[in-house]
Amino acid sequence: MPWSPATPRSTGSSRGGAAAMRPDPSGLTVEAVTTAAGLEQLAPDWWALWQAVPEATPFQSPAWLLPWWRHVGEGELLVLAVRREGALAGLFPFYRYAQPATGERLLFPIGIATTDYLDALVRPEQAAPVLAAASRHLALRAGCEAWDWPQLRPGSTLLSLPAPPGWAERVEAADPCPCLRLPGRVEDLATRVSGKTLRDLRTVRRRAEQAGTLRWETEESGTEEALEALLRLHAARWDTRGEAGVLASPAVQAMHRAAMPLLHRAGLLRLHSLRLDGAIVAVLYALADPPGRAERRLYCYISGFDPGLERLSPGMLLVGRAVEAAVAEGFAVADFLRGRERYKYFWGAEDQPTHRRRMEPPCGAS
To answer: Could you give the domains of the chain?
Structure first.
């Protein structure tokens, strides 16, 4: 995708430094956070804001984005923290990046490329003044040829941010995310999933049980072991295609090693592992909305399984396990995230649109 930088690494050079604070005509205060240390210091207020935004996904949480910037991000950090009377009312996590091929300076959301839903966080009751203040301050400080924001859901905060006066704007379709609406009970899965899919699931489960001793585990059974198994199995599967896979980068691996314990402690991790005769042969890495959210979602992020056991259909076993566990836990939607792989539609998922928004200043105004 043209707005995704090449796999970057953090230089780790940003340390300390106070955020620049500027008053806004609305009475809000806008801090421009430009150092990694400053971003880390925002974590407590960031968590409080994330919990107050009903539409926020785990991808907007500090548990996901702080490890991303620490291990994957490069360029110049430019995060706007908008406050009212000291309380964080909005957080706009951006960074400036110069495209190596063209030198074009772009304003990207933190988390780009490895994150399926990108967005800012704004307290709903303060949305209008916070968005206006963020737009004004970005126009003054960003210094980029364009702001390029992909993977925005319908109703995204970043879709609502006012374009600065005189700026050109384009919104276009981005990669859809197939989603499966879940019933209230496991017994009612047949109302959402085809009979053929459920029959096939029963068949592959019997076949797997005949192959040896099966045991399912969740993240409480050992996050580190499951992650290392996921990295190994994902690499082995992609190696059969002569490709590296999206988890091959050491920087990306370091990001997930740092993020998983944070997600786990926050209750946002769902890590399903399948053991066959004691060995982990399949892993599904998913994120979860916290309890109390309307339309609570399970986000099926990535999986890996032993390519030598493909006859046992480990991919179907993983999805079947995750879907049934999600129903039992009260999730409303299983979100399969980006990609139009056939198996997602086999389960009855339907595309949810996402959007890419690009804004450009008047010629010579960047």
So the answer is: 20-175+354-360 (3.40.630.30), 178-337 (3.40.630.30)
